[in-house]
């Protein structure tokens, strides 16, 4: 009799676990849809509406760090920075090795003038970043330098701007701000050189500072020669009416009557992503997971062009996402009024540990 009861209990537990698993999967799908709606509202500057969507996504799935991060962005846009920080600290608790959440928190600390907290958090980010030559490290040194500059700690600011420039020689905003720190220390000629370099590379504040404070400064011929090789910039081709053109010269639409479709539909696209994505080892070791949001153009012939990351998670996931998107087969193109058109397409690509 006891054995029969045990078997019945075991069956009930197993059945209940199966139901819970099915419910969890369904909840994640619902949460993802609300999250995507929130991102679209955010992109349209409808921040309060975006917060409501992210609230609902979190109700369905409380363990997805990206939902809290997205809500933090919307809250910060509404000026609710304390709430945004609370959400970012939830992200950090869920993924302590993902430095991007700490970087965003540091930016908000700087924004609300909690400078010591900002510097402390930027310093943590610098220690967490594994790629010692990438833009993330460049930007973190730059922003910590900006925080020091706001505190009038100009020597420390210069050290951070030096670090930023040493990693990326073409990070011209760092030249502009280093010039400010140098000028405050009465190192005027050095400041003018930095402002000159930044100004000829399009940094407006550097141009203003150079014209206002360097009227008697003569730019050395040696510097002009060294800077003679102008950095080539890729300019987006634009038609006369201001509409963006694709690589093939077609006008790009964002909301056509008929959206492009992956061959075989959404289910086949999911199979393609699962088969193609190779989880980066750096991200796996750092326990980085979440959604990479990517945008690309589906041309009139169905080819995928110009993939770009709208929002990344680091750890090599962004690069892997771009690789997989670039290798996609031809899509069924979008249509407008019965005619095939080029379409800008946005989508999330989810990286899940253990998946």
Terminal Cα span: 42 Å
- Radius of gyration, CA atoms, in whole angstroms: 25 Å
The count of helical stretches stands at 15
Order of helical and strand elements: HHHHHHHHHHHHEHHEEHEE
Shape: globular
Written overview of the protein:
With 355 residues, the chain is of the alpha+beta class. Among the domains are: 1-96, Serine Threonine Protein Phosphatase 5, Tetratricopeptide repeat (Alpha Horseshoe); 252-351, TolA/TonB C-terminal domain. Helices cover 58% and strands 10% of the residues. It contains 15 helices and five strands. Strands 1, 2, 3, 4 and 5 form a five-stranded mixed β-sheet that branches. The chain is globular, with a radius of gyration of 25 Å. The two termini are 42 Å apart.
Write the layout of secondary structure elements.
Layout (H helix, E strand, L loop, with lengths): L1 H42 L3 H14 L4 H13 L3 H14 L4 H13 L3 H14 L6 H16 L3 H14 L4 H13 L3 H12 L4 H10 L7 H6 L25 E2 L12 H11 L4 H5 L4 E9 L5 E8 L5 H10 L7 E3 L2 E13 L4
Parallel strand pairs: 1-5
Antiparallel strand pairs: 2-3, 2-5, 4-5
Helix pairs in contact: 1-2, 1-3, 2-3, 3-4, 4-5, 5-6, 6-7, 7-8, 8-9, 9-10, 10-11
List key phrases describing it:
single chain; 355 residues; alpha+beta; Serine Threonine Protein Phosphatase 5, Tetratricopeptide repeat; TolA/TonB C-terminal domain; five-stranded mixed β-sheet; 5 strands; 58% helix
